[in-house]
Amino acid sequence: MPMWIDLIVEPFQYKFMIRALIVCLAVGVMCPFLGAHVINREMGFMGDALAHSVMPGLVAASAVGLTPMFGAIPLGITVALVIGYVVKRSNISNDTAMGILFAGLFALGLVLLSLIGGSGINVEDILLGQVMGTSDMDVYVTITVTVLTLLLMILLYKQMIFVGFDFEGAVVAGLPASRIDYLLLVVLSIVIVVSLQVVGIILVVGMLITPAASASLIVKRFSHVISLGIGFGVISSVLGLYFSYYFNLPSGPAIALVSTAIFLMSFIGHGLKR
User: Under CATH, which number does the domain 29-273 receive?
Assistant: First the structure.
């Protein structure tokens, strides 16, 4: 067998690498799909804010013996809905509302972590994730959330686009525009919480924003941005795992760096065309 084939096949002789690949591919498809809508609504900071804001929920649930996800998902949904409500009902901008909640809740989570201690929550794991330590249950949960998210976004594709590009026009047309926006926030919060449990904040934020941003520099049609963004997400996941395996790097940051490199190449290519 040629050496280059050995290099490709070798990592996936191990079950933990196969599980890591499945989870990263799921995140690499799901997050860019949502990310295109997030960027279109100029909510790029939302993913980072939500990922950090669920820290108190993670700590509290772990402290009482529950799976951290059971505390993080309700808090994530609440934070997303509060941000949406505050922005619509006041003069406070998206970024301002997210910045306030992000800083306050993440700080509260760190304080709770220091007070409780021994809760089983590791800040480094939240930031970097534990892709290589992915369990079979992590795989099942991630695949389930990915399938349900894609089905929902495909079913509401036209409505989501209409609301995202022309909110007032959607209202005039009789669409429940505010409810659709809130639904997007709820789905986004669930996806972020489920994903960060496995792959960490760095990779979730990187996969949510960077592939879709890269695609938007190359193509203009929204459907093409989604498709190309998913392609970039998949490429980043696969190459990042290879770099992680062969150079003993943290998987989440490795994948995020590949995604960033793709963005830089897209940016340079976009600049050369102008």
Answer: 1.10.3470.10
